[in-house]
Design goal:
alpha/beta, 7-stranded parallel sheet
Length: 320
């Protein structure tokens, strides 16, 4: 039967053979990509994070994704350095973690990333002196209160976006890296955003998206710089997660809870330099890439204009 098929193929015009060959390799490529997607999302085991070091440092740990990361890392047996601006919330989170994971050691460091950042970083350096910081989660970040055009962004918000999202992430990483380099091991996770990578543009959130694009490129460069030093650097790219920043209260299949996201995120630490840990988000990513950019731009603009209108309405009610 095989000989018969080969004879039939030989009798076909060369252009048909070319198309068949092209189709075969295209199908093979798609099949291998799909099998890889299944493996990394459902079968690949997470790394033993304690091998990086016994402590993890998390910025922005009092709410949202950062808080979920803190609980998940404590569950994995790591001690925690929690860096946030509100001492009362830091204490509350620390006590909640200790009540659930009693053996976890926790250090709280009060830093306002929109304030005196140099002083805050000095306090971080002092707090981590002598500690094996094996995992760094750069989670702290700010966004717009609601969508707005660039000329509507006031100086304070503009300064905070750049200072917290760009300067804060950079300086905290710079503070933690020397210890990792000395021990020749460590994992750095920077929280990016689909607004900077998945969609071609994020109108009315331009500065936020640009700061997250910085985080993505910063992460990739560090991944190359420090890979041979035993340090794994990664930019995680979540899409919508049910958080206060996203103004989403309820989770769904495509919008995970913060706990659902963090649980998925831990399995990816130490692997690819850029990833989308929550697998349903990869479906949305593939959909966005399959559509014309002009269509996605138009849809996103109309969506953000709706957010802007609702935000302006809320502001006007507050003034009444």
């Amino acid at each position: 039967m095989t000989d018969c098929i080969l004879e039939q193929l030989k009798s076909q015009p060369s252009w048909i053979l070319f198309l068949l060959t092209l189709g075969f390799f295209s199908t093979l490529k798609f099949s291998l990509s799909f099998l890889k997607w299944v493996y990394v999302n459902f079968l690949r085991p997470g790394k033993n994070l304690k091998k990086y070091g016994s402590w993890a440092l998390i910025t922005g740990p009092t709410d949202g994704i950062g808080k979920a990361f803190a609980f998940q890392l404590a569950r994995k047996g790591l001690n925690l350095v929690l860096v946030g601006r509100n001492p009362d919330k830091l204490k509350e989170v620390s006590e909640s973690i200790k009540s659930k994971y009693g053996s976890t050691q926790i250090k709280n460091v009060v830093v306002d990333f929109s304030g005196d950042l140099d002083d805050g970083v000095s306090r971080i350096k002092e707090a981590i002196q002598g500690l094996e910081i094996g995992v760094l989660i750069n989670n702290v970040g700010v966004s717009y209160p609601y969508a707005r055009f660039l000329h509507e962004v006031d100086d304070k918000l503009l300064s905070n976006l750049i200072k917290v999202n760009v300067e804060g992430t950079t300086k905290v990483t710079q503070a933690v890296l020397p210890g990792m380099v000395e021990r020749k091991r460590g994992a750095i996770v920077n929280i990016g955003s689909g607004a900077a990578i998945v969609i071609p543009s994020d109108p009315l959130y331009s500065v936020y998206a640009a700061t997250k694009a910085y985080v993505d490129q910063f992460s990739r460069c560090l991944y190359v710089e420090y890979k041979k030093s035993g340090i794994d650097v990664q930019c995680q790219v979540p899409l919508y997660v049910a958080t206060k920043m996203a103004s989403i209260r309820r989770s769904s299949f495509f919008v995970p809870s913060t706990d659902g996201y963090a649980l998925a995120a831990l399995r990816w630490i130490g692997y690819e330099p850029r990833c989308t840990p929550y697998w349903p988000h990869t479906i949305l990513w593939a959909l966005a890439y399959s559509l014309p950019e002009s269509f996605v731009d138009s849809w996103r603009l109309n969506f953000c204009l709706g957010i802007r209108k609702r935000g302006q309405l809320k502001d006007s009610r507050k003034l009444e």
